[in-house]
Design brief:
single chain, 361 residues, alpha/beta, Aspartate Aminotransferase, domain 1, seven-stranded mixed β-sheet
């Protein structure tokens, strides 16, 4: 497969060489060596700091969807009420997932070019009285970022757990798990952390642990074994030591740069990307900096072009961006400037190529 010199897909992102090098070492058995558990605990502490939480962080072996499914199945039982706050493909998708495990689901649905309205969510929550409220911080298919601070207050008012997917935002913009009242916070390794797509992380509050104990779900993706598994040095499966070592390197890079500097880098590159798109004459989706994510920019496929043709012409020039999904498929394309790809020179090269391509029309 061809490697594109200007990778701008919204995940999995380009992996730094320092992270890749961690995979080339034979560490031994994660089941048997104390060094693995020390490495795990070190990564957990760094993730707690990055996510501003005192909650335990379960680090699972598997791609980011493992966190989404595992947290749902571990905390929700058939006929439980789930309120899915949805502003895009993934928000509605989590509601569909909850239905598949037998939950009664109601949606607080909003447009694909908008953010959630806390008042509307509160009105529905007070009427529906859910056990769990779900939301997505960064909706990558539409490039939007949802405000979350008020959702925690709503969840506490109606005695619900708050489940938040911040897979595509954490590490690229501030996430306050404890301040926002998040009970189950979901993260993947392949976005702003710039690792392979092989680890999932879940922050678990004490309220969530109580629900997990009551549900008593058993499966590969179950969270229950992680409450004491690391302390007991007995995990439910053989973990991926190479992936954990890569995560440690990625967290070291993040900490060396500093949180504020990392967030500023993402914001600056996102602003530059959107300014260039406007200069080229490409319509943004949505055309609102207030709700646009600093980790991904969505734009409308220009008139006279199909997504397939646009993608093909960019790839001829070594640039890989992303299409979209659901109602936005074929209508919107996305530039992923998260993690290692939140790089001004990289995005500049991508925008120069896009300007050249559109000049062909």
């Amino acid at each position: 497969m061809e490697k594109y010199p200007v990778p701008l897909v919204p995940g999995p992102v380009s992996i730094p060489q320092e992270v890749l090098a961690a995979y080339a070492v034979d560490y031994g058995s994660a089941d048997m060596e104390s060094e693995f558990f020390e490495l795990y605990e070190s990564c957990e502490r760094s993730l707690q700091q990055m996510l501003a939480t005192k909650s335990q962080v379960a680090i699972l072996s598997g791609e980011g969807m493992l966190a989404l499914w595992g947290a749902l199945k571990s905390a929700v039982q058939p006929d439980d009420r789930v309120l899915a706050v949805a502003t895009g493909v993934f928000g509605y998708g989590v509601g569909d997932m909850a239905r598949r495990i037998g939950a009664q689901v109601e949606e607080a649905g909003f447009g694909y070019a908008s953010a959630l309205d806390p008042q509307q969510v509160a009105d529905i929550a007070r009427r529906f009285r859910p056990k769990l409220i779900t939301a997505v911080h960064c909706e990558t298919p539409s490039g939007t970022l949802n405000p979350l601070a008020e959702l925690g207050e709503i969840a506490r008012e109606v005695d619900a757990l708050l489940y938040v997917d911040f897979v595509a935002s954490a590490g690229g913009t501030p996430v306050g798990v404890d301040e926002w009242g998040i009970d189950l916070g979901l993260l993947g390794s392949q976005k702003a952390l710039s690792c392979m797509a092989d680890l999932s992380m879940v922050t678990v509050s004490e309220r969530a642990w109580a629900a997990i104990e009551a549900a008593d779900y058993v499966g590969y993706d179950a969270l229950a074994p992680w409450r004491t598994g690391v302390a007991d040095r007995y995990l439910p499966y053989t973990h991926n030591w190479q992936a954990m070592a890569g995560l440690r390197v990625a967290l070291d890079l993040f900490e060396a740069e500093g949180q504020e500097a990392a967030y500023r880098r993402h914001a600056d590159v996102a602003s530059y990307c959107r300014d260039r798109l406007r200069e080229i004459g490409v319509e943004l989706w949505p055309d609102s900096e207030e709700i646009s994510s600093p980790t991904v920019t969505a734009a409308v496929v220009p008139d006279g072009w199909t997504w397939e043709r646009l993608d093909g012409e960019l790839r001829k020039r070594g640039v890989a961006v992303g299409g979209s999904y659901g109602p936005l498929a074929g209508k919107v394309f996305r530039i992923g400037h998260m993690g290692s790809q939140a790089n001004h020179d990289l995005v500049e090269r991508g925008m120069d190529a896009l300007a050249e391509v559109l000049g062909m029309a």
